[in-house]
Amino acid sequence: MKILIIGYMHPKFDKRVYRTVKSLSKVHEVIYQYWTNKDDKEYTDGNIKYLPIKEINETIGNPLKKLINRRPLDKKICDLVAEENYDILYMHHFLASKPLDPFKIAKKRNKKIVYDIHEYHPENFLAELEGMIGNLKVKTVWRFFKKQLDLSDLAIFVSEETRNDVVNKTNIDKEKTYIIPNYANFIIKPDIQKKRKEIVLVGKVTRKIEDEKKILKSLIEKGFSFKIIGMDSKEFMDITHESTEFLPYDEMMNELSNSLFSLISYNTVKNRDYKNDIYALPHKFYDSLAAGTPVIVKESFVSMAKQVENLGLGVVIDPSKVEESVEKITNAYKNYEKIIKNVEKHQKEFIWNEEKERNFLNLISHITT
């Protein structure tokens, strides 16, 4: 069986996308389109045919202008979907300027479609649009998102809460859905002796942490330190911190494993009810726990908060309540050994392993039957 995987604007080794490429290539032929800003050449390695598509027109500024700039890229991908020989089209994102075209082309060719939904698309797509235009955008995306789901044979979501919310809003068949969180690659057994009295923020994208800064400043006064792994920004100029440049995955995990807590509390956009955050189970959540580091999670991030509270994996805070949050974190520090034992007990649940891969491969294989 041949599978055409559309990575779209994801780089070649994006963790979630490339995991599907490597797993599926173990039993199927894979044609893999990915984004690059370099002059990569098409090549084949084993069961994988790599199809790089170069795009350097991505600009900062007017989102509608960015949409227009995407048209040539989206046309190339539509041509791939129309011309390549495959049995299953595996979409890791829709095409910004042609959101329905690949789905319609594949269906017209009687191909099966898997739609891997990394984000809460109606809110995440063009998230910078606000007010009346933003509301109109959300309604528009919901309309074509439902059509995409109706055309798909399988929809894969990152969390149960995202899946359930989308199913309720679109009335798609729940039996045509599956959940694959953003699992970590491997486990680092926690070692309390190596832990620094440090709270770490992981990520290559700058997010607002205005409320969290007040908490961190109070904790710094109590002897904690604050580190950012993977970036630095003027957003953090007003708080004492260390930072690292972007690190390869293994190095990032090792750095993360030495921290007391990983902070997963922030605002991506002004809207505090932004479902792309509320229902998220991001890489940094699974990576932190797999690295043996308990998490500090914002209580409105319901998908993460539920797991943290049910399994005792760290602290759930309301960052607007500074004193209460500081007290919760300092109490967790006093009971750190108990929390670490809980993290270690459940670490296997947060990594991609042979069993999860086997279930995924069986799922994809049965789509064509």
From TrEMBL:
<feature type="domain" description="Glycosyltransferase subfamily 4-like N-terminal">
    <location>
        <begin position="62"/>
        <end position="182"/>
    </location>
</feature>
<dbReference type="InterPro" id="IPR058592">
    <property type="entry name" value="Gtf3_C"/>
</dbReference>
<dbReference type="InterPro" id="IPR028098">
    <property type="entry name" value="Glyco_trans_4-like_N"/>
</dbReference>
<dbReference type="Pfam" id="PF26337">
    <property type="entry name" value="Gtf3_C"/>
</dbReference>
<keyword id="KW-0808">Transferase</keyword>
<dbReference type="GO" id="GO:0009103">
    <property type="term" value="P:lipopolysaccharide biosynthetic process"/>
</dbReference>
<protein>
    <submittedName>
        <fullName>Glycosyl transferase group 1</fullName>
    </submittedName>
</protein>
<dbReference type="Pfam" id="PF13439">
    <property type="entry name" value="Glyco_transf_4"/>
</dbReference>
<dbReference type="GO" id="GO:0016757">
    <property type="term" value="F:glycosyltransferase activity"/>
</dbReference>
<feature type="domain" description="Glucosyltransferase 3-like C-terminal">
    <location>
        <begin position="223"/>
        <end position="348"/>
    </location>
</feature>
